[in-house]
Amino acid sequence: NAGVTQTPKFRVLKTGQSMTLLCAQDMNHEYMYWYRQDPGMGLRLIHYSVGEGTTAKGEVPDGYNVSRLKKQNFLLGLESAAPSQTSVYFCASSYLNRNQPQHFGDGTRLSIL
Amino acid sequence: AQTVTQSQPEMSVQEAETVTLSCTYDTSENNYYLFWYKQPPSRQMILVIRQEAYKQQNATENRFSVNFQKAAKSFSLKISDSQLGDTAMYFCALSEGGGADGLTFGKGTHLIIQP
Description:
Largest interface: A-B, 25 and 25 residues
Largest sheet of chain A: 7 strands, mixed
Number of strands of chain A: 11
Oligomer: heterodimer
Order of helices and strands of chain A: EEEEEEEEEEE
Number of helices of chain A: 0
Helix content of chain B: under 10%
Radius of gyration of chain B: 14 Å
Structural class of chain B: mainly beta
Order of helices and strands of chain B: EEEEEEEEEEEE
Structural class of chain A: mainly beta
Strand content of chain B: over 45%
Largest sheet of chain B: 6 strands, mixed
Number of helices of chain B: 0
């Protein structure tokens, strides 16, 4: 059981570069989420999706874009990376029923120099 | 907006002791869900326990139990017979509304179990 898989696990970027983080889930979940985790801050929601072809903004969406062209994949893009986006990024997914907990990937550590 | 507060940045106890982690929250919803997640040094986010707000009975999962006080908006986690493997960051989280718009997390409590 793969669950939620995030690619890549580590990445170092230079300021101004762009990149895409990939999240894939094999549990047929409707909902998918992207969070960032900073020291002492807990996890904060960046964007989320309630189904294929839909996306919505979370608490900290600025500087990020997302797409969900297929139900199993949720992509997070950084258009022009900034040092403030250095963080650990987590993807999560869950069933339609809000009683169901979110399943998390192992995270992507991203450093912007 | 919903908020989750964990007032204990770090706690340390001896192995086999019982420890309680505090969490308070604020929400305007009547029906919501509360969770405790564990994050060991491996960075994985692991669900420990969950509580549905409309249920009076406190949730339990083996050595883990919660004290849910709805009126006080308090949701503490009790770990009995603590083990070295319980050393981790623990996050309290709230899900409200339709549940689709993500979790709101507290800042976490770093729990250290001493041998």
